[in-house]
Amino acid sequence: MTEPFSVPVTVRGYETDVQGHLNQAVYLNYAEHARWALLHSAGISQTGLTSKGVGPVALETTIRYKNELLAGDEVEVTCAFTWGGGKTFTIEQTIRKTDGTVAAEITAVGGILNLQERRLVARPDEVFKELASDPSLFGL
């Protein structure tokens, strides 16, 4: 199995809270950044999605905080899609320090919304296959 897609991020001082560790909401920003970076690397843009009348939606997100992050820490944020054949997919993400310490694990359930009908499309994997220049980044 290949390594999951990942992007580097450096924790910025303004993202920390009064205790000096990364604010809990910023973990979601890092996860979202990695997901959009994966889409971009696979050849899918926001414009490409909206021109097809679809857009990704988050339906559920769980964050498991493991170790604190401090300003200046360098991390890798991974992103791996799992397809179940229905209207939704799962995204497993890990935020890991360069020394291998896991800071957080994020599991998200998502879908592809038909922007006109305001309903999830039946096969989001097929949408990604159609739009992506490199669908292998999604495990397809």
From TrEMBL:
The keyword Protein biosynthesis does not apply. Keywords: Hydrolase. Its EC number is 3.1.2.-. The keyword Nucleus does not apply. InterPro entries: 4-hydroxybenzoyl-CoA_TE (IPR050563), HotDog_dom_sf (IPR029069). It comes from the Bacteria. GO terms for molecular function: fatty acyl-CoA hydrolase activity. Signal peptide: none annotated. This is Acyl-CoA thioesterase. It comes from Streptomyces sp. R11. The lineage of its organism: Bacteria, Bacillati, Actinomycetota, Actinomycetes, Kitasatosporales.
